[in-house]
Amino acid sequence: MDAVVAIPLFPLHTVLFPGGPLALRVFEPRYLDMIGRVVKDGGRFGICLIAEGEEIGEAAFTYDVGTLAHISYWHKRADGMLGVTVVGDQRFRILEREVQPDQLITAKTELIPNETPRPLPAEFRTLAVLLEEILTQLGHPYVKLPKHYDDASWVGARLAELLPIQLAQKQLLLQLDDPIERLDRLRAMIELGELA
C-alpha cells in the first residue's frame, strides 16, 4: 500500500500538477493559519479542484485526486493579502475528509507514486515546441522553473496546466497514470479544436 498522510486541503478552481508552480493570494483566516503552520513546520498541503462549492465561505466539496504542494516563496502583498507560490510535489487520493469548525478541510490521503520520467516520443515533439513557445511568454512563477522538454510526463503536465482546457478535463488528465496517454489526449484536443 502507498504511503498514507494526513494533510490540510486548499480547494481551488484550478488543477495543480506535480512539478508545476502556482501563485496564490491568501486572505481567509483559515488559510492564513494553515499557511503559517505549513511555513513553521516545513510541511505540505493538498490542492484539490472544487467539484461543488466556492473557494471562500463554507467548505467546498472537492474531487478525490489532488496534488500535494510545498511553499517555495511567500510575501506580504501591498494589499494586505499573503502572496504564496507553491510547487506541486505528488498526487494523492483522498480516503477520508473532515471539516474543522473554521471550515478548513483536513484529509487522510494515500500518496500516488510519481510518474517515472519517460523520453518524449518523436510523434509528440510538436507539443514540446508549443509548450516552449508558451513558456517563453510567461513571467513569474514559470521563469525560474527547470525545463524538461524531453520528458513526456513533464511536457504533458505543463501543457495540461497552461492550455485553455475545461477544469473537468484538466482533472481527468491529472488522474491519468500514463504520460503518453495524457499527451495523446492533449494532442487530440488541440487537433479537434476542443480547447476552451
Short précis:
This protein has helices at 29-41, 125-135, 152-162, 167-175, 179-191; strands spanning 4-12, 21-26, 45-52, 61-62, 65-76, 82-99, 105-111.
Protein architecture, described:
The protein contains 5 helices and 7 strands. The relative contact order is 0.18. The protein has 196 residues and is an alpha+beta fold. It folds into 2 domains: 4-111, Archaeosine Trna-guanine Transglycosylase, Chain: A, domain 4, CATH 2.30.130.40; 122-191, LON domain-like fold, CATH 1.10.4060.10.
Helices and strands in order:
Elements lengths: L3 E9 L8 E6 L2 H13 L3 E8 L8 E2 L2 E12 L5 E18 L5 E7 L13 H11 L16 H11 L4 H9 L3 H13 L5
Parallel strand pairs: 1-3
Antiparallel strand pairs: 1-7, 2-6, 3-4, 3-5, 5-6, 6-7
Helix pairs in contact: 2-3, 3-5
Key terms:
single chain; alpha+beta; Archaeosine Trna-guanine Transglycosylase, Chain: A, domain 4; LON domain-like fold; 2 domains; 5 helices
Shape descriptor reads: globular
Query: How far apart are the termini?
Result: 38 Å
Largest beta sheet: what is the strand line-up? 1-3-5-6-7
Radius of gyration: 17 Å
Low-confidence stretches: none
**Strand composition percent:** 25-35%
Give the helix level as a range of percent.
Answer: 25-40%
CATH architecture classification name of the largest domain: Roll
The major pleated sheet works out as: 5 strands, mixed, barrel
Mean pLDDT: 91
CATH superfamily of the largest domain: LON domain-like
CATH topology value of the largest domain: Archaeosine Trna-guanine Transglycosylase, Chain: A, domain 4
Number of helical stretches of at least 4 residues: 5
Oligomeric state, counting identical vs distinct chains? single chain
Q: Write the H/E string, N to C.
A: EEHEEEEEHHHH
- As for the number of domains, it is 2
| Count of beta strands | 7
Task: Kindly provide the name of the CATH class of the largest domain.
Answer: Mainly Beta
Q: What is the SS-derived class?
A: alpha+beta
